[in-house]
Specification:
Blueprint: E1 5-9, E2 13-19, E3 34-40, H1 42-53, E4 56-64, H2 67-78, E5 82-89, E6 95-102, E7 105-111, H3 120-125, H4 127-132, E8 135-138, H5 144-157, E9 160-163, H6 173-178, E10 181-182, H7 186-195, E11 206-208, E12 214-218, E13 221-225, H8 238-251, H9 256-270, H10 283-293
Parallel strand pairs: 1-4, 1-8, 2-6, 4-5, 8-9, 9-10
Antiparallel strand pairs: 2-3, 6-7, 11-12, 12-13
Helix pairs in contact: 1-8, 8-9, 9-10
The protein binds alpha-D-ribofuranose.
Alpha-D-ribofuranose is lined by residues 11, 13, 15, 40-42, 45, 97, 108, 110, 141, 236-237, 239-240, 276.
């Protein structure tokens, strides 16, 4: 297969980022060192990651009718993402993420804004995109009923469905049963296990554990791929890079182990630049990194 078709159903946010020496305590004001805006949103980030690697990527999502909305559309266009499924919502603000970068990691508050208008009805309008895709990816920054509708359409059209359950939210056993893969980080995995008995679904489970690498299961046995030792300047979007790259590899019909290795390398490259999307690599960069680093 030359170019997998990937549809991302998900969020598009403007990231408002402050770097600081530490995170403020409740009631405390501290001074930051730097501020910038950069395109983000877990959905958009995963779309950009897959597109840079060479997939044909379609996005289904919403932005507001504000300046952030038009900037976000421009960024996605420059990344060669097909945007017929991204309609602006009138009289609503685009989604934003307030990000604090401190102590070598990020903490994020997302205001969903127009992303909430990615409703089940809206997604049904783009059923033909889902039907023609090799892989559909979604996250939890849009309404959960919309994620469930996406899962239903993927099942109907026999399309691989990857759920990145981020940020953690209540998901049902029925939803997990419809996935091909579920890709939480450690915090999200804990939240997931409180709602769903994941032992039933071990072979769908891929856990991204940051510095501790990636865990996947084959024949009920756990395998761990260690992380690469790189000097990380910004971990924002590392999980999204993993998901976009994993979707690309699954679309290329790689097995789970190969897909996890490939996505792990892509994520290691992504943390070496500032901004969720800036460090996302091309396929050639990932292969070169793997050749040089094992
Ligand atoms: O995963 C990182 C992303 O989470 C950021 O780009 C931010 O927009 C939030 O959605």
């Amino acid at each position: 297969m030359e170019k997998p078709i990937i549809t991302v159903v998900g969020s598009i946010n403007m990231d408002l980022v402050v770097t600081a020496m530490k995170r403020p305590e409740a009631g405390e004001t501290i001074l930051g060192n730097d501020f910038y805006t950069s395109p983000g949103g877990k959905g958009a980030n995963q779309a950009v990651a897959a597109s840079r690697l060479g997939a044909e990527v379609h996005m289904i999502g919403r932005v507001g009718d504000d300046e952030f909305g038009s900037d976000l559309i421009n960024f996605l266009e420059r990344e060669n993402i097909f945007l017929s499924g991204v309609e602006p919502v009138t009289h609503k603000a685009s989604g934003v993420a307030m990000i604090t970068l401190a102590d070598g990691d990020n903490s994020i508050i997302v205001y969903q804004g127009a992303n909430l208008d990615t409703t089940p009805e809206y997604i049904r309008k783009y059923e033909s995109l889902i039907a023609k895709s090799d892989v559909v990816v979604t996250q939890l920054e849009i309404p959960i009923e919309s994620v469930e509708e996406t899962a239903r359409l993927c099942q109907k059209h026999n399309t691989h469905f990857i759920l990145n359950p981020a940020p953690a939210a209540d998901v049902s056993t029925d939803l997990i049963a419809k996935t091909s893969f579920v890709t939480p980080n450690q915090l999200e995995r804990t939240a997931l296990s409180e709602k769903v008995d994941m032992n039933q679904f071990l072979e769908k489970l891929i856990v991204t554990e940051g510095k501790d690498g990636v865990v996947y299961y084959e024949q009920q046995k756990q395998h761990r791929i260690p992380s690469y030792s790189v000097s990380a300047v910004d971990t924002t979007g590392a999980g999204d890079t993993f998901n976009g790259a994993f979707a690309y590899a699954i679309g290329m019909k790689e097995d789970v182990k190969t897909a996890c290795h490939f996505a792990n390398a892509a994520a290691a490259l992504s943390v070496q630049k500032i901004g969720a999307q800036a460090g996302m690599p091309t396929k050639e960069e990932v292969y070169e990194f793997i050749r040089n680093n094992g």
